[in-house]
Specification:
357 residues, alpha/beta, eight-stranded mixed β-sheet, 12 strands, 34% helix, globular, binds adenosine-5'-triphosphate, binds iron/sulfur cluster, binds magnesium ion
Length: 357
């Protein structure tokens, strides 16, 4: 067991407990480009209830951000083709008009990004921007009320002297403080869904931990549904109730976080787990990246998109290169997409993979 696996899992609501607040079905987001059709997201489905956290993990270019921007309704260019369903509290956002999605964005669902400077304007104070985000959805609020709300939110996310710092410009904040301010802005309207896309990648390790703690505290306080997107399984190890692993625009494995760490079923997940930093190993030993490069999303490899990199593709009698594996339920709530027979997978995991994790 790794150090991270030893950490007690957070007390989680029963899997799938309650009605899903967000329900995504067979989501496909393709872009028409001069080089060809980019299949950035290609048939992703999941449910997320309020009070639960879903971690979406995968290497660079696997479609994590496109999925989240799609949920937020931010791919409305003529070149984007979106099909499937994104139901937010029962309402299908794929079918909804842009005005309706804009109305829900910021109020019912909000997003925080890796780089707060992409979300914050350099020429307005932090306070002005939080006030603006609040007043868009609370037009009846006076300026004084909105400012009080901004100070309250800055205080809530741990900005010292919030009544003074509210008048600072983003560049006067440190990286960690800016990230906190962006979280304050995202939460100012008390959204029911928060998406955090690589919220800590640009920060140093101590600040990363503080921001992750903050997201967890806020989630517990507000009871919202949270999606955390990361290429680092370590980030979601303690935070997520459920994990969805993406590869080449598809979900290759999803299930409760504990199950995914203890008995992962997909060879790509094994690779990700093997590349996860561990506290108890020397640096040179630990970061074993998944060998090879991520697939092109224009010319996606035939069959299982992972086959050019998978050490076990030859064990499936040619199926890996010819037939796309569908997600199958391997245990309650735990799904994986791989042609390897279950007994073979379990043998490989026990004999070859687990001893190295
Ligand atoms: N507007 C667009 N037009 C064409 N292709 C796009 C567009 N947006 C994203 N893509 C492509 O979709 C793929 C998935 O991108 P995405 O940003 O979702 O990856 P990611 O998993 O978030 O990666 P990272 O970890 O680097 O953030 C990439 O190949 C990217 O080039
Ligand atoms: S389907 Fe084949 S190539 Fe894909 S992960 Fe399973 S064994 Fe590897
Ligand atoms: Mg991304």
């Amino acid at each position: 067991m790794t150090e991270l696996q030893k950490t007690p899992a957070r007390a989680a609501a029963p899997a799938g407990g309650g009605e899903p607040y967000l329900s995504v079905r067979d989501l496909r987001i393709h872009f028409d480009t001069d080089d060809g059709l980019v299949r950035s997201v290609d048939g992703v489905s999941f449910d997320l209830a309020k009070g639960r956290t879903l971690g979406i993990v995968g290497e660079s270019g696997s479609g994590k951000s496109v999925t989240s921007l799609g949920i937020m309704g931010l791919h409305r260019s003529k070149r984007a083709r979106i099909t499937g369903e994104i139901r937010l509290d029962g309402e299908d956002l794929v079918a909804a008009g842009p005005d309706r999605v804009r109305e829900l964005r910021g109020r019912e669902m909000a997003m925080i990004f890796q780089d707060p400077l992409t979300a914050m304007h350099p020429y307005y104070t932090v306070g002005q921007q939080i006030v603006e985000a609040y007043r868009v959805h609370h037009p009846q609020a006076t300026k004084k009320q909105a400012r009080a709300r901004a100070v309250e939110m800055l205080d809530r996310v741990g900005i010292p002297q919030p009544d003074r710092r509210v008048d600072d410009y983003p560049h006067q904040f440190s990286g960690g403080m800016r990230q906190r301010a962006m979280i304050a802005m995202a939460l100012v309207n008390d959204p029911s869904l928060l998406i955090a896309d690589e919220p800590t990648t640009a920060l140093d390790v101590t600040v990363q931990a503080q921001i992750l703690d903050l997201i967890r505290d806020l989630q517990e306080e507000f009871g919202s549904a949270v999606i955390i997107i990361t290429h680092d399984l370590g980030v979601v190890a303690e935070l997520a109730d459920d994990i969805l692993v993406m590869y080449g625009g598809k979900c290759v494995e999803r299930g409760p976080a504990e199950t995914l760490f203890d008995s992962p079923e997909h060879p790509y997940t094994w690779g990700l787990l093997g590349s996860m930093p561990r506290l108890d190993r020397e640096l040179q030993e630990r970061l074993v990246p998944v060998k090879g490069t991520p697939p092109s999303l224009i010319n996606v490899p035939s069959g299982c998109a992972f086959h050019p990199r998978c050490p076990y593709a030859a064990l499936t009698g040619g199926r890996s290169t010819e037939e796309t594996p569908g997600l199958t339920e391997v245990a309650p709530g735990h799904h994986a997409a791989c042609h390897l027979a279950l007994s073979e997978r379990h043998r490989i995991f026990t004999e070859e993979i687990a001893p190295r994790l």
